[in-house]
UniProtKB/TrEMBL annotation:
<keyword id="KW-0963">Cytoplasm</keyword>
<keyword id="KW-0711">Selenium</keyword>
<dbReference type="InterPro" id="IPR015424">
    <property type="entry name" value="PyrdxlP-dep_Trfase"/>
</dbReference>
<comment type="function">
    <text>Converts seryl-tRNA(Sec) to selenocysteinyl-tRNA(Sec) required for selenoprotein biosynthesis.</text>
</comment>
<comment type="pathway">
    <text>Aminoacyl-tRNA biosynthesis; selenocysteinyl-tRNA(Sec) biosynthesis; selenocysteinyl-tRNA(Sec) from L-seryl-tRNA(Sec) (bacterial route): step 1/1.</text>
</comment>
<keyword id="KW-0808">Transferase</keyword>
<dbReference type="InterPro" id="IPR004534">
    <property type="entry name" value="SelA_trans"/>
</dbReference>
<dbReference type="InterPro" id="IPR018319">
    <property type="entry name" value="SelA-like"/>
</dbReference>
<protein>
    <recommendedName>
        <fullName>L-seryl-tRNA(Sec) selenium transferase</fullName>
        <ecNumber>2.9.1.1</ecNumber>
    </recommendedName>
</protein>
<dbReference type="Pfam" id="PF03841">
    <property type="entry name" value="SelA"/>
</dbReference>
<feature type="modified residue" description="N6-(pyridoxal phosphate)lysine">
    <location>
        <position position="300"/>
    </location>
</feature>
<keyword id="KW-0648">Protein biosynthesis</keyword>
<dbReference type="InterPro" id="IPR015421">
    <property type="entry name" value="PyrdxlP-dep_Trfase_major"/>
</dbReference>
<keyword id="KW-0663">Pyridoxal phosphate</keyword>
<dbReference type="GO" id="GO:0016740">
    <property type="term" value="F:transferase activity"/>
</dbReference>
<comment type="similarity">
    <text>Belongs to the SelA family.</text>
</comment>
Length: 475
C-alpha cells in the first residue's frame, strides 16, 4: 500500500481546483483554514495507507478526489456550522427538556434581538440619568401579574433554591416533608442543593404522609425556614397526606422569624386548572396563602427563557439581592429581555397568552390537532403513495417534569413504509440538517403535531419525500 502514497494529489494541486474554492466560499472561511483541514485529511490518508488500514476508494481513481471533497465538506460543515441548532419536535412533549424546553414567543424573540443588537438601559435609570438596577426592569410586570411585593431573577430555579437556602438558612435548620424530597431530571435533588448551601435539612413525616403536627414538633430555635417543594415530576396516589402552605403559614405565626418558602417548580401565571388541565396552583394563589417566598422556572409552564424567578416579601428579597451570590447567579440582558417579552404577553390577556408557544401547545384541543393531522396526512399521501399513513387517538405529555399526571388527548399521524424500517426512518429524520425528532412505537413512526409549528409541516413532508426517494435511487 505504501506505493500508493505518491499518487496522492499534492495540496498545491488540490488548492487550484474549483471544488476547493467553492468550499472556502460556501463556508465563508479563510483559505488557510480550509488548507489546514485538507492537510490533516491527507495526513490521515497517508497514515492509513502506511499501516495497511486504507479502505477508501483506489487512490489513483477519480472516486478518490471525489471522496476528498465529500470528506472535506463534512469536516468543514462540522467545524464551521453551529452545533446548537433548531430541531422540529414532533414528539408532542411540550416542554421537552432535551429539546430546550419552551420555544419563545415572537414578542420575546423581538425583545432579545433588539437588546442584543444595541446598547440598552440594563443598569441605567433613564428617569434619573444615573446607575440603575437590572432587577428593577422585569420586576414591575412580575409584581403586577402576581400580586407579589418584590421579585428577583437568577439563572434558573435550581440557582434560586440555592440562593434562598444559602442566604437565609445557612447553618440553620430547614424543615422539609419526606414526601417532598424530590429529584428532578436526575440532576436536581433538593437534599443535595440543601447540603451544598450549608443549610441543615430536617426531614419530617413519612414518604406518604406528613401532618401539621410533624412540622410543629420539628420546629425549634434553630429553625430558619419551612420549605415546601412542589412534587413536579411525580404524583403520589392512595393513602397520602401533605400539609398545604396556608396551614403552615397560620400555625407558625408564633415564630415570626421562621420563613415559609415554596419551591413551585414550574409556577404558572395562567390558570390551567380552570381549563381542566392539571392541578398547578397559580403563583398569585400561592402568594395569597401567605408564604414569604416562592420560586419557579422561567422556561417551564411560564413559556419563557431559562431563568429562576423569586417572588415574595420585600424585606426578604432585599436580603437576597444584597447577598454576594446574587452577583454570581445574575442573568444577562438577553434573558431579561426574553422574560420581559414573555411577561408582556401575559399582561395583554387571553390574546397575548395564545402567542406563547408552550401555552398554545398545552391548551390545543384534540380536535385542533386532528384537523391539522388530517390535512397533513393528505399532503403526505399526495407526495408518496408507498407510505402507509393513518391518524389515530393518543396522548401528549406536558414534559419538563411538570404535570406528570396529565395526559393531553391528542391525535398522532402514524407512518409506515413497506420496505424501510421505522428505526431507519427515525434515524434519517434525526440526521437531517434540520433534525426532526419523532416517536417510534413498535413498527411505526408517530408524529404528534401538537408541538410542530404550522410552518414546519412542509419541512417534514419534504423530509419524507427525500428519505424515501433516496432510499430507492441509491441503494
Ligand atoms: C424544575 C424544578 C427545579 C429546577 O428548576 P430549573 O429551572 O430547571 O433549574 C427545581 N425545583 C422543582 C420543584 C422543579 O420542578
Amino acid at each position: 500500500m505504501k506505493d500508493w502514497l505518491r499518487f496522492i494529489p499534492s495540496i498545491h494541486d488540490l488548492q487550484q481546483t474549483d471544488e476547493y474554492r467553492a468550499l472556502a466560499e460556501k463556508f465563508k472561511v479563510d483559505r488557510n483554514k480550509v488548507h489546514q483541514r485538507l492537510t490533516k485529511l491527507l495526513d490521515k490518508v497517508r497514515a492509513d495507507l502506511l499501516q495497511g488500514r486504507w479502505t477508501g476508494p483506489s487512490i489513483q481513481s477519480k472516486e478518490f478526489t471525489d471522496w476528498i471533497w465529500i470528506q472535506l465538506e463534512s469536516i468543514l460543515s462540522h467545524q464551521f456550522a453551529p452545533q446548537l441548532k433548531r430541531v422540529i419536535n414532533a414528539t408532542g412533549t411540550v416542554l421537552h427538556t432535551n429539546l430546550g424546553r419552551a420555544p419563545l414567543s415572537e414578542k420575546a424573540i423581538e425583545q432579545i434581538v433588539a437588546v442584543a443588537r444595541s446598547y440598552s438601559n440594563l443598569e441605567y435609570n433613564l428617569q434619573e440619568g444615573k446607575r440603575g438596577s437590572r432587577h428593577d426592569l422585569v420586576e414591575k410586570s412580575l409584581l403586577e401579574l402576581t400580586g407579589g411585593e418584590a421579585a428577583m431573577i437568577v439563572n434558573n430555579n435550581a440557582a434560586a433554591v440555592y440562593l434562598v437556602l444559602r442566604a437565609l438558612a445557612k447553618d440553620q435548620e430547614v424543615i422539609v416533608s419526606r414526601g417532598e424530597l424530590v429529584e428532578i431530571g436526575g440532576s436536581f435533588r433538593v437534599s443535595s442543593i440543601m447540603e451544598e448551601s450549608g443549610a441543615v435539612l430536617k426531614e419530617v413525616g413519612t414518604t406518604n404522609k406528613t401532618h401539621l403536627s410533624d412540622y410543629e414538633q420539628a420546629l425549634n430555635d434553630e429553625t430558619a425556614m419551612i420549605m415546601k417543594v412542589h412534587t413536579s415530576n411525580f404524583k403520589m396516589i392512595g393513602f397520602t397526606k401533605s400539609v398545604p402552605a396556608h396551614e403552615i403559614v397560620s400555625f407558625k405565626e408564633n415564630y415570626p422569624n421562621v420563613l415559609v418558602y415554596e419551591d413551585l417548580g414550574s409556577g404558572v401565571l395562567f390558570d390551567f386548572k380552570q381549563e381542566g388541565i392539571g392541578e398547578e396552583p397559580t403563583i398569585s394563589s400561592v402568594l395569597e396563602s401567605g408564604v414569604d417566598l416562592v420560586s419557579f422556572s422561567g422556561d417551564k409552564l411560564l413559556g419563557g427563557p431559562q431563568a429562576g424567578i423569586i417572588l415574595g416579601r420585600r424585606d426578604v428579597i432585599a436580603r437576597l439581592k444584597k447577598h454576594p451570590l446574587a452577583r454570581v447567579l445574575r442573568v444577562d440582558k438577553m434573558t431579561l429581555a426574553g422574560l420581559e417579552g414573555t411577561l408582556l404577553q401575559y399582561t395583554q390577556g387571553t390574546k397575548g397568552i395564545q402567542n406563547i408557544p408552550a401555552l398554545r401547545s398545552v391548551r390545543m384541543t384534540k380536535e385542533e390537532v386532528r384537523e391539522r393531522s388530517e390535512a397533513f396526512m393528505s399532503a403526505l399521501i399526495n407526495c408518496n403513495v408507498s407510505l402507509q399513513i393513518e391518524c389515530m387517538e393518543d396522548f401528549s405529555l406536558v414534559g419538563g417534569g411538570t404535570m406528570p399526571e396529565v395526559r393531553l388527548q391528542t391525535y398522532v399521524v402514524s407512518v409506515k413504509h413497506p420496505q424501510i424500517r421505522p428505526s431507519t426512518i427515525e434515524q434519517k429524520l434525526r440526521g437531517r440538517n434540520i433534525p426532526i425528532i419523532v416517536r417510534v412505537r413498535d413498527e411505526e413512526i408517530l408524529l404528534d403535531l401538537r408541538t410542530v409549528q404550522e410552518r414546519e409541516e412542509q419541512e417534514i413532508i419534504e423530509a419524507f419525500k427525500e428519505i424515501i426517494d433516496k432510499s430507492f435511487t441509491h441503494d
